[in-house]
């Protein structure tokens, strides 16, 4: 088969390693692969997402907070891993995202960054760590880049966060914006409510254009009507990432515990579950407990 046809059939999720010669990385460190039009992307960069949008290709994003999920999702071909402030709910046991701190998120982000070879790792700036001023935001973002080895950061807010985004990008930090429903502002917004319906739809577009103008390389839209998100996606040059914003966004993101069934109970409407990991783990734990208590484990083959 012609190599170009083979590359096209595998598309973006091909795990085939390129045989192209590698170029030396500047300032030492691992060698970087030579550029090749037909070779799969070895490391997702922010400009790759814009190029994918221009080609009409969609990409995927999941949360990750640890080594093993990061490795699995990276191997699966997920382009972006978000070490979200949702760790507050899904790692630290809080009921909202508000209590999680920078010092709690830094080691989680570092674990994910050190465990991937291809995915773009996004460090999520927690509540209170960037809203006070552009300088506060820059200093917090710099910690994520230096101490946690994040590849970029994410913050919530539209036009009002433009000064923070501009300061970070001017200082060499790529920024992903987040508009629509912003969980850190849930008390101001009156709870988990769809944003951008009716007369407020124009505000979503204004926010999207403001963060793009400020320098954001992508924007998440959460709980936004699908027709509004589609209009924003068509008008922006930067890629959009939807969560509860319809299927016309350039990419989609979900919290992995929601998508793969580790979390139970009532789930948001926009969540689709692709597995039931809670039942798998529960059954395994019960089997282990039974064998330990009966003396079946450890057996002879598990004994030195």
Write the layout of secondary structure elements.
Layout: H1 3-10, E1 22-23, E2 32-33, H2 46-55, E3 59-63, H3 67-76, E4 80-83, H4 87-90, H5 102-113, E5 120-124, H6 134-146, E6 152-156, H7 162-170, E7 175-180, H8 186-189, H9 201-214, E8 218-222, H10 226-235, E9 240-243, E10 251-254, H11 256-259, H12 277-294
Parallel strand pairs: 3-4, 3-10, 4-5, 5-6, 6-7, 7-8, 8-9, 9-10
Antiparallel strand pairs: 1-2
Helix pairs in contact: 6-7, 7-9, 9-10
GO molecular function: 3-methyl-2-oxobutanoate hydroxymethyltransferase activity; magnesium ion binding; methyltransferase activity
Protein name: 3-methyl-2-oxobutanoate hydroxymethyltransferase
Pfam families: Pantoate_transf
Please sum up the structure shown.
The chain has about 300 residues and is α/β, with parallel strands linked by helices. Helices cover about 40% and strands about 15% of the residues.
Describe this structure in words.
This is 3-methyl-2-oxobutanoate hydroxymethyltransferase. One of its GO terms (molecular function) is 3-methyl-2-oxobutanoate hydroxymethyltransferase activity. With 304 residues, the protein is of the alpha/beta class. It has a single domain, classed as Alpha-Beta Barrel (TIM Barrel). Helix content is 38%, strand content 14%. The protein is built from twelve helices and ten strands. Helix 7 runs parallel beside helix 9 and helix 9 packs parallel to helix 10. The protein is globular, with a radius of gyration of 21 Å. The N terminus is likely disordered.
